[in-house]
Write a structure and sequence with these properties.
With about 375 residues, the protein is mostly helical. It has one domain. A four-stranded mixed beta sheet has the order 1-2-4-3, with helices on both faces. A hairpin with a 6-residue loop joins strand 3 and strand 4. The chain is elongated and about 80 Å long.
């Protein structure tokens, strides 16, 4: 009984750390929104309440907008990023049956199932729909035995039940913007438009900004001095906003790593409880780690979000023809957010030992 209490205490402490990390990461998002609001408020004086009330209102609106954009990115970006195809029961009847059985045991809705045509054995979970989506690679299906496959599916179900995919995206979105993994232009489909149309749209945005800023400029509207002042203000917003975004993204990056570490331990533990076999979870982790890409290939893997959301800290590609070299790419890929497989296996071994000690007491 003491062992079970000790295990529950560790689990509760881990839950508190996850909640604290998420709160801090979301605070960074609010901080970015507040910084942008402070820069943009003078431009919007004609439509905002005056003083701190207007800045607070704009901060709230920008925060909601940032969160909505992040969730939109989850829904629309990740499946296409890994080139995953949602498959039907007719395509993979046995795999669907496994997932349905495990979801029923966990009293959870059955998620969609997607398969990546890649020899790299890995899996991830993607939020966005009511039940989410479990993504597995062809390499994973061929590498694992039945018990280990159940363990991996249970691990991904745990992430979906805990809303980990959404939580981690909220925590890691700002670093993705700075690293160039997310582009608002691409997300809105504007990069598919002709270059002339994109320039016209950009010009319209700049012109609209001038109309909004005109009452606050230190020169009469439509004069050369007002245009110069507006250009200076525009450069200031871009530069200062970029600095604020970079600082917030750097802090959030480390918070997202900590959150990622905690969520993997929690999902491993939940998978062990769901399948009743910590050894199967540990065996799957070890087997996939041994069969995964080399260290060099893993460092060159693209799509930082996919690596963070995956069972193991590499994506679904063995190599990348266009390796990234920016500072934030090296942070998010070279220094892994996942805990080492050895530590995860050790934690699962402790879980199995605690279960073994608790069983006689329960009987």
């Amino acid at each position: 009984m003491v062992s079970r209490t000790s295990t529950d205490t560790r689990g509760g402490a881990r839950t508190l750390r996850v909640a604290a990390t998420l709160a801090a990461a979301l605070s960074a998002t609010v901080g970015v929104a507040a910084g942008l609001a402070g820069l943009l408020a003078p431009w919007l004086a004609a439509v905002l309440p005056s003083g701190a009330v207007g800045v607070a209102l704009l901060t709230g609106l920008l925060t909601v907008g940032l969160v909505a954009v992040q969730l939109r990115y989850v829904r629309r970006g990740l499946l296409s990023e890994v080139d995953a195809t949602v498959v039907s029961r007719d395509d993979y009847p046995e795999l669907h049956a496994r997932l349905t059985r495990l979801a029923g045991t966990a009293d959870a809705p059955v998620p969609d199932l997607a398969v990546v045509d890649s020899a790299v054995p890995n899996s991830c979970s993607v939020a966005g729909s009511a039940a989410g989506t479990v993504v597995v690679s062809a390499g994973l299906l061929s590498e694992l035995d039945d018990e280990e496959l159940d363990a991996v599916l249970a691990h991904e179900l745990a992430h979906l039940r805990n809303r980990d995919a959404v939580v981690l995206t909220l925590a890691s979105f700002l670093p993705a913007v700075v690293a160039g993994d997310y582009s608002p232009v691409s997300d809105l489909g504007l990069d598919d438009r002709p270059a002339g149309a994109q320039w016209l749209l950009g010009g319209a945005v700049v012109a609209a900004g001038y109309f909004l800023a005109a009452p606050s400029l230190p020169a009469p509207a439509w004069t050369a001095s007002s245009f110069v002042a507006y250009a200076g203000a525009l450069v200031g917003v871009v530069v200062l906003g970029g600095i604020a975004l970079g600082v917030a993204a750097t802090a959030t990056l480390f918070l997202a790593r900590e959150l990622s570490r905690e969520r993997e331990f929690a999902a491993d533990r939940a998978a062990a409880e769901l399948t009743g076999s910590p050894a199967a979870v540990a065996g799957a982790l070890q087997r996939l780690a041994d069969a995964g890409p080399t260290a060099t290939d893993a460092r060159r893997a693209r799509a930082a979000h996919v690596a963070e959301l995956s069972l193991l800290p590499f994506g679904f590609e063995r190599d990348s023809s266009s390796p990234e070299t920016s500072l934030f790419d090296s942070f998010s890929l070279d220094t892994r957010a996942h805990p080492p497989v050895e530590r995860r296996v050790e934690a699962l071994t402790d879980t199995a030992a605690a279960r073994a000690r608790a069983t006689p007491a329960d009987d």
